[in-house]
């Protein structure tokens, strides 16, 4: 489905690369750092096959492909690193308020005993 959507974009490679960068960032947040690097690298075939060449043909067109692949990897890894850093950040400790436990009053208890 993603490939069909990218192919439908047509001659707007900036829109296609933006979509791929957003997808790489979202998926990078959900995985480990090595997994994010792999996600970034796997984004390049989608870019080359469906954004640059509309028929799904993979081709290296020069330094632009290396820049796009590097950008996809950097965005995915950065999202994963941010997730890891946020998970390790110290969380504020909230002390619970003391809860009053209801205690039966002595007078009420004595009235119950006399019945």
Q: Describe it for me?
A:
The chain has 115 residues and is mainly α. It has one domain. It is 70% helix and 0% strand. It is built from 5 helices and no strands. It has helices at 2-9, 13-29, 33-52, 63-88, 106-114. Helix 2 (13-29) runs antiparallel to helix 3 and helix 3 (33-52) packs antiparallel against helix 4. The longest helix is centred in the middle third of the chain and has 26 residues, at 63-88. The chain is rod-shaped, with a radius of gyration of 28 Å. It starts with a helix and ends with a helix. The mean pLDDT is 79.
Which helices and strands, and how do they pair?
Blueprint: H1 2-9, H2 13-29, H3 33-52, H4 63-88, H5 106-114
Helix pairs in contact: 1-3, 2-3, 2-4, 3-4
Name some characteristics of this structure.
single chain; 115 residues; mainly alpha; 5 helices; 70% helix; rod-shaped
């Amino acid at each position: 489905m993603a490939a069909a959507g990218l192919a439908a974009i047509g001659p707007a490679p900036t829109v296609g690369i933006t979509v791929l960068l957003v997808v790489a960032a979202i998926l990078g947040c959900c995985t480990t750092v090595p997994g994010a690097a792999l996600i970034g690298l796997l984004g390049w075939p989608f870019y080359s096959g469906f954004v640059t060449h509309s028929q799904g043909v993979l081709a290296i067109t020069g330094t632009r492909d290396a820049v796009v692949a590097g950008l996809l990897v950097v965005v995915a890894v950065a999202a994963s690193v941010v997730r890891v850093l946020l998970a390790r950040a110290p969380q504020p400790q909230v002390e619970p308020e003391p809860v009053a436990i209801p205690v039966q009053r002595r007078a009420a208890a004595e009235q119950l005993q006399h019945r």
